[in-house]
Specification:
Blueprint lengths: L25 E3 L2 E3 L6 E6 L4 E7 L3 H16 L8 H17 L1 H12 L3 H22 L7 E3 L4 E9 L2 E5 L5 H14 L3 E5 L6 H13 L6 E3 L4 H10 L5 E5 L2 H13 L5 E4 L5 E4 L5 H13 L11 E5 L3 H14 L18 H16 L3 E4 L14 E4 L6 H4 L6 E7 L2 H8 L4 E2 L1 E5 L3 H10 L4 E4 L14 E2 L2 E2 L4 H7 L1 E9 L7
Parallel strand pairs: 7-8, 7-10, 8-9, 10-11, 12-13, 12-18, 13-16, 15-16, 18-19
Antiparallel strand pairs: 1-2, 3-4, 5-6, 6-22, 11-21, 14-15, 17-20
Helix pairs in contact: 1-7, 2-4, 2-6, 3-4, 3-6, 4-5, 5-15, 9-10
The chain binds adenosine-5'-diphosphate (ADP).
The site of adenosine-5'-diphosphate has 17 residues, from α7 and α8.
Protein name: Aldehyde dehydrogenase domain-containing protein
Keywords: NAD, Oxidoreductase
GO biological process, one term: carboxylic acid metabolic process
Length: 504
């Protein structure tokens, strides 16, 4: 079932390696199976809009089948009964296998998602491995406490897995988001049913095959591709899923929470949208600030929930900043993501592409100043020019709503207090950043801004040791490392009488 160790490129020697697509069916109970309906859907190449392949279209009945397998694997299978050390060993092996298949996975990710191959290979897979090895290392280090109680009793707290968990994954970092949910769920001893995004199902299926090869038992990990309102909704509302993790839009997050509440009141972890402020102060090193702003917004074609999409620039340096920011954006290399020099590939699909172009039109219509870009790039696929708007006002649509594309908004401010106040007007609160040489200014901002992550003089720096998650409508619950493992466990209190023992 799993790919051969020596699977090799069958390409034509161009910059685009070619691998056959091996896995397109649902992965349930350790086997690749068709959807019960027999239906399939097409996954498209964002460079051209052409079909890559057809994938099994799972629905509620397939999710149910996967949940039954996951339930049996939890109630009767070895995974939750293994020691943490034994589970960790399997997960380390899983990481090694993923590392050995880096090129093929990176190829599939770029093909399905459109992100630069160098990003898939040197950022996304590296992130996957860090996540998996981190949680594998925690698997044998989770322990509760003992309590001296107010009476002749002994109290203990015990961390236990929830049971069957569900995960609904977005398309912007398909492999990484998969592992941020699957790694900790498995390390904690849960079993899991994953619904990848319909735009990007291919790497999740490949990762399922590698999980089997690593020795993760049948039923412990199941992957059911399909659409949100059908397969995704079935995960959120399933009566026998005990916890669900979701990364995606705030709008869908609300639907998932409602479905979770109305079914079996399963706890949810929601990592949702953002409209993150980046504040550039007048004392900043201008070139460094421009680099930070460029990375903050244009990284991953702007398709990041943490994108620095509201760039507040102090009025005294505004014009100088604009000149350099525009110059840098114009130099950005847009094109085929398999070419090593390309920094920006296509947006993931036609829906996103059109939505972003509509936001650009609304920016123009509401009076923002288009400084560069503003159009589709090329005449094929879903490429958009790196775009910058100046003189953006807080009440404009492009300053309020998540665009999820390569569109930077520059807003002018006078004082730090004003910047903090305006930064906090957003309903979102995922991330925020400040560029300043003054540590007091930076600290004041960091403590005043309502966001789950604050970067000072940097952006998009993540680590498994740091909690990741949102404030306000950007969601709740924390991911990464131990934070994520504990969010996949529930805490039990156990009490025993101390009959003939001294209770000192
Ligand atoms: P985006 O708008 O960026 O595509 P979404 O929040 O719509 O992000 O999608 C993220 C994930 O949520 C995808 O796997 C998608 O299939 C799923 N999804 C979309 N709608 C629903 C829904 N009603 N119920 C459950 N999952 C959904």
């Amino acid at each position: 079932m799993a790919p051969a160790e020596n699977s090799s490129p069958v390409g034509n020697g161009s910059s685009e390696p070619k691998y056959p697509i091996k896995y397109t069916k649902c992965f349930i109970d350790g086997e690749f199976v068709d959807a019960i309906s027999g239906k399939t859907f097409e996954t498209l190449d964002p460079r051209t809009g052409e079909v890559i392949t057809s994938v099994a279209e799972g629905d509620a009945v397939d999710i149910d089948r996967a949940v039954k397998a996951a339930r049996q694997a939890f109630d009767e299978g070895p995974w939750p009964r293994m020691s943490g050390a034994a589970r960790g060993k399997v997960l380390f092996k899983y990481a090694d296998l993923i590392e050995q298949h880096t090129d093929e996975l990176a190829y599939l990710e770029t093909l399905d998602n459109g992100k630069p191959f160098v990003l898939s290979k040197y950022a996304d897979i590296v992130g996957v491995l860090k996540c998996l090895r981190n949680v594998a290392g925690w698997a044998d280090k989770i322990s509760g406490q003992t309590y001296k109680m107010d009476g002749p009793y002994q109290g203990m707290s015990l961390y236990e897995p929830y049971g069957v968990t569900g995960a609904i994954i977005p398309w912007n970092f398909p492999m990484l988001m998969f592992m941020l949910k699957v790694g900790p769920a498995l390390a904690a001893g849960n079993t899991i049913v994953v619904k990848p995004a319909e735009q990007t199902p291919l790497t999740a299926l490949y990762l399922a095959a590698l999980a089997k090869e690593a020795g993760i038992p049948s039923g412990a990990l199941n992957v059911v591709p399909g659409f949100g309102p059908t397969a995704g909704a079935a995960v959120a509302s399933h009566m026998d899923i005990n916890k669900v993790g979701f990364t995606g839009s705030t709008e869908v997050g609300k639907i998932i929470m409602e479905a979770a509440a109305k079914s079996n009141l399963k706890p949810v972890t929601l990592e949702l949208g953002g409209k993150s402020p980046l504040v550039i102060c007048e004392d900043a090193d201008l070139d460094a600030a421009v680099d930070i702003a460029n990375l903050a917004l244009f990284f991953n074609m702007g398709q990041c929930c943490t994108a620095g999409s509201r760039v507040f620039v102090q009025d005294t340096i505004y014009d100088a900043f604009v000149a350099k920011a525009v110059e840098k954006a114009k130099k950005r290399v847009v094109g085929d993501p398999f070419k090593p020099e390309v920094e920006q590939g296509p947006q993931v699909d036609e829906t996103q592409f059109k939505k972003i172009l509509e936001y650009i039109e609304s920016g123009k219509a509401e009076g923002a100043q288009l400084l560069t870009g503003g159009c589709a790039a090329g005449n094929k696929g879903y490429y958009i020019e790196p775009t910058i708007f100046g003189d953006v006002q807080d009440d404009m649509k492009i300053a309020r709503e998540e665009i999820f594309g390569p569109v930077m908004s520059l807003l002018k401010f006078k004082t730090l207090d004003e910047a903090i106040k305006r930064a906090n007007t957003s309903s979102y609160g995922l991330a925020a950043a400040i560029v300043s040489k003054d540590i007091d200014v930076a600290n004041r901002f960091a403590r005043s801004v309502r966001a789950g992550t604050v970067w000072i003089n940097c952006y998009h720096v993540y680590d498994q040791s740091l909690p990741f998650g949102g404030y306000k409508t950007s969601g709740f619950g924390r991911e990464h490392g131990l934070h994520s493992i504990l969010s996949h466990m529930q805490l039990k209190a156990i009490v025993t009488p101390l009959k003939d023992s001294p209770w000192l």
